[in-house]
Specification:
The protein has strands at residues 2-9, 14-21, 25-30, 36-41, 44-49, 56-57, 71-72, 78-83, 91-96, 103-104, 111-116, 122-128, 133-139, 146-147, 154-160, 167-173, 176-182, 190-191, 198-204, 210-216, 227-235, 242-249, 265-272. It is mainly beta. It has a single domain (2-272), classed as Neuraminidase, CATH 2.120.10. Belongs to the TolB family.
Length: 274
């Protein structure tokens, strides 16, 4: 499998390649200063400076099984990772952006990080605490977790709007996977898409105008890689989505927040057979 990290420009609808590699690379984040991307590769985390693109490994201490659910704090000072080195099941940790020893946040596993509140105080993640995966939040320093969603067969991909008033996520009910949003206290749950596509990983844009997401073909189960998918853009208030790009991807393409700070570009990964 070959991985290509790329940037999509909204205004021109053009794609620029940043890096290509024969390794599996996933889920690019964009740093708040707009200078670099962060992505996972072979269980480790890497910084990619856009002025001179290359993989520069970030020191993550003992964490050597980092999956594609990682991110950067709003102030750019802290990284959050989801890693299974200690227990064999994904747990959430934080560490300094420049690298260091991870500090565990979640007390139970599995847990997969996906969103950071705009004020930097709260993490949103998906976790299995019974028979199903639901959306949870907890303070950045750890502590009691709050269950946001209930009654879904499966949930994933929670991400905050830039004003912090909503958490978007993908939720499955009766075999249909659509985009939803809810207040951080779990109230006012609203269904935002309703079509045959299998919709995953919604990411509200920094300017609050759009929501980027990944759309699988009808009938796809879960969120596999190596599929023909579409990147779509939905008005933040709901409505008809616009297809931006078709590609070979899926898992790893845009699992985590990937918008540039200006809201005019986003980073993604697409794949091709090796």
């Amino acid at each position: 499998m070959k991985s290509e990290i790329a940037i999509f420009e909204l205004a021109s609808e053009t794609v620029t390649t940043v890096l290509k590699t024969a390794d599996l690379v996933e889920a690019p984040n964009w740093t708040p200063d707009g200078a670099a991307l962060v992505a996972n590769r072979n269980g480790r985390l890497y910084r990619i400076d856009l002025a001179d693109p290359d993989f520069v490994e970030i020191d993550t201490g003992f964490a050597r099984n980092i999956n594609n659910d990682h991110g950067i704090s709003p102030d750019g000072a802290t990284l959050v990772i989801s890693d299974s080195t200690e227990s064999g099941s994904s747990e959430i940790y934080t560490l300094p952006f420049g690298g260091g020893t991870p500090t565990r946040v979640t007390e139970q596993a599995p847990a997969y990080w996906h969103g950071w509140s705009p004020d930097g105080r709260t993490l949103a993640y998906v976790a299995k605490r019974g028979d199903t995966f639901q959306i949870y939040t907890c303070p950045i320093g750890g502590g009691a977790e709050f269950q946001v969603t209930r009654g879904f067969d499966h949930c994933d991909g929670p991400d905050y709007t830039p004003d912090g008033k909503w958490i978007w996520f993908n939720g499955e009910k009766s075999g249909a996977v659509d985009l939803w949003r809810a207040r951080p206290d779990g109230s006012d749950v609203q269904k935002m898409t309703d079509d045959e596509r299998v919709s995953w990983f919604p990411h509200p844009s920094p300017d609050g105008r759009h929501v980027l997401y990944l759309a699988y073909e009808p009938g796809v189960t879960g969120h596999p890689r190596d599929k023909d998918v579409e990147l779509r853009l939905l008005p933040a208030a709901g409505g008809e989505p616009r297809v931006l790009l078709g590609l070979f991807g899926g898992q790893g393409t845009i699992n985590v927040p990937c918008w540039a700070p200006d809201g005019q570009r986003f980073a993604f990964v697409r794949y091709s057979p090796g």
